[in-house]
Design a protein that fits this description.
Layout (H helix, E strand, L loop, with lengths): L31 H11 L11 E4 L6 H14 L4 E5 L6 H11 L8 H8 L4 E6 L8 H9 L3 E7 L10 H7 L2 E4 L5 H15 L7 H14 L2 H17 L7 H12 L1
Parallel strand pairs: 1-4, 1-5, 2-3, 3-4
The chain binds adenosine-5'-triphosphate (ATP) and magnesium ion (MG).
Length: about 260
């Protein structure tokens, strides 16, 4: 059957939202070991025993944030709550304490004492993403001093960050180091394929378009880049009223991303 051009009320996307930067996939293939390692370090908290703190590091766009978010959601289902703060968005201690308080439902003036009272000794996990962007670490010292049953995860793409920590913080934190290694080319292909199957209807991508998408993602070694490229190429195809994403749609998307 030969179909005409794509109508303005039709779409090649089965789930475009899954290509948004905030979308956290249920499964993160090739990161199963890291997920297990993180979960294992925190699981003692479920039994009221203190867990291990973690420092997670590795290059940009290789799953650090999303793996931690996924583990926190999973642990939450077992009854261990998690707090997630991006220290690029909240970079000063007051703002970080404010964000934690808000996530715990504290409306009145946020402070470490109020947070401590709210938790009243129950276990919790704190994840501080982009920790190297925090302007100072008073909040971290306060948590280490005041909150006993806490597992702390620090995430950064700067491995050297840990060496810059004040001795008082480092000796209290004693973090277990978890390196996120780069994905191999075939792993990146696998991740892109999974997401493509999830985000697009079947048979909407030409082989040439897939090949270029894969090549460019491997070149950048950044899955985030690949997902943006995939989304924009799909939108270009739709704009063209094409039922299939062609190589030229990926090329157009590349031009825009590189300019
Ligand atoms: N194994 C995987 N399976 C499926 N999607 C993945 C996987 N790894 C990464 N991704 C996707 O790649 C994108 C980038 O991942 P993420 O934001 O976790 O990277 P990051 O390591 O935190 O990068 P940065 O250091 O720049 O913050 C996300 O959209 C994420 O869902
Ligand atoms: Mg991240």
């Amino acid at each position: 059957m030969k179909l005409g051009p794509l109508g303005s009320d039709e779409t090649i996307f089965s789930n475009i939202d899954s290509l948004n930067p905030d979308f956290v996939p249920k499964l993160l293939p090739y990161r199963e070991n890291e997920q297990k390692e993180i979960a294992n370090s925190l699981e003692p908290l479920l039994k009221g025993i203190s867990g291990r703190n973690l420092f997670i590091y590795g290059k940009a766009g290789i799953g650090k944030t999303h793996v931690v978010k996924r583990v926190l959601e999973d642990l939450n289902e077992f009854g261990l709550p998690g707090i997630f703060v991006n220290c690029w968005v909240h970079s000063e201690s007051n703002a970080i304490i404010g964000s934690i308080a808000k996530q715990l439902g504290i409306i009145a003036e946020p402070s470490i004492e109020r947070i401590k009272n709210r938790l009243s000794g129950s276990a919790i996990v704190f994840a501080f993403d982009e920790i190297d962007q925090a302007k100072e670490l008073n909040f971290l010292y306060a948590i280490l001093e005041e909150i006993n049953m806490a597992g702390i995860i620090l995430i950064s793409n700067k491995p050297e960050f840990i060496a810059t920590l004040d001795e008082r913080i480092r000796s209290r934190l004693q973090p277990q180091m978890i390196e996120f290694r780069n994905y191999k080319p075939e792993e990146m292909r696998g991740i892109l394929k999974e997401r493509r199957k999830y985000a697009f209807y079947e048979e909407t991508w030409s082989e040439e378009a897939i090949k270029l998408l894969e090549e460019k993602t491997i070149e950048k070694a950044d899955i985030r880049f690949g997902l943006i490229l995939m989304r924009n190429a799909g939108l270009n195809a739709e704009q063209d009223a094409s039922r299939i994403v062609l190589k030229k749609h990926v090329e157009q998307a590349l031009e825009k991303l590189q300019s």
